[in-house]
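Title: Prediction job returns without error message
Component: structure pipeline
Severity: low
Priority: P3
Assignee: unassigned

Description:
Job completed but the reporter wants confirmation the result is attached to the right record. Sequence as submitted:
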Amino acid sequence: MASYFLRCVALLGLSAIGSAAAQQATPRLAAVVLPAQTSGPALAKATPAAAPAAPAAPTAAAPLFKADSIFINPQVLPQFTGGEAAFSAYLKKNLRYPAEALRQHATGKVMVNFVLGANGLVTYATVLRGPHKLLNEEALRLIWHMPAWQPARQHGQPVRVSCTIPVVFVE
């Protein structure tokens, strides 16, 4: 039984090798007879029969990536408008510590992942981990209400990018 199986596998392998070799063979030449000209003998010209078409070369206008791609490490990173100092000021000014979380003495760091669109606006946000449900909700609110960032760039084009930032809550 095992030898029968090995023979079948060997035959399939030879069949695959034969068809691959046939596909790689050079095209055959066919003679094409052109109509006789008025002042000379008939011309014959050899041309390839059914020569495969050359693949189209990418044009300069063709994008190098899909429009819905999300980059993790683009060539140019996104930047909060005004830089890191402006981002810290935005968080301090707009953070509203939930009263119930204060009563429970909930503190800690909420890790938020979000996608910045090619226009610099948040298009998706989720909490990766956080110490308390109320703190997680506040961190998400802050991210969703951020002003536009300077978008990430890949080959000079603005692109979508995935970002992860910590939002720290201290009493």
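Comment from assignee: result matches the submitted record. The longest helix spans residues 2-24.
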